[in-house]
Amino acid sequence: MSGSDNKTKPTEISPADFVAEVEHPVRKADAERLLDLFGKITGLSPRMWGPSLIGYGEYHYEYETGRKGDFMMTGFSPRKANQVVYIMPGYTDRSEMLARLGKHKMGKSCLYINKLADINMDVLEEIISDGFAEMKDKYPDWKA
């Protein structure tokens, strides 16, 4: 494989407009809060990636298989079932922080949170900051 195989690319949709259209009132309020939190942590403006991901920063990856592309460094998505928080890279052991976070589920590079009221926001901030710092170190040519 070669070229950019990632189908999730930046769009021109406004993240604030996207969040304003979220129907679930708690999910919408939580997404507004996450817009502020991610902006504070990263110092970056959000961009939509595909139809539903709100991302901050961008990095270029290239795997040994030849697959390469660009993707957001961190971000979130207000899904119908829960908030999904993307913490890249996903394989770093953050078990100590996750133990203090509160009610959540884990994927490879993401946290599933039903509502922000279920978690410790200071710990979430710590996790996002840690993941973003690690991405900046791993991908020194990242873009805002």
Summarize the biggest pleated sheet: 6 strands, antiparallel
Helix/strand order, N-terminal first: HHEEEEHEEH
- What is the subunit arrangement here? single chain
Number of helices: 4
Average pLDDT number? 92
- What structural class results from the helix and strand content? alpha+beta
Radius of gyration, in angstroms, nearest whole number: 15 Å
| Strand element count | 6
* Intertermini distance: 27 Å
The level 1 CATH classification is Alpha Beta
Helix-residue proportion: 25-40%
CATH fold title: Aspartate Aminotransferase, domain 1
Strand arrangement, largest sheet?
1-2-3-4-6-5
Structural domains: how many:
1
Beta strand %: 15-25%
Shape: globular
Low-pLDDT runs: none
Q: What is the CATH architecture descriptor?
A: Alpha-Beta Complex
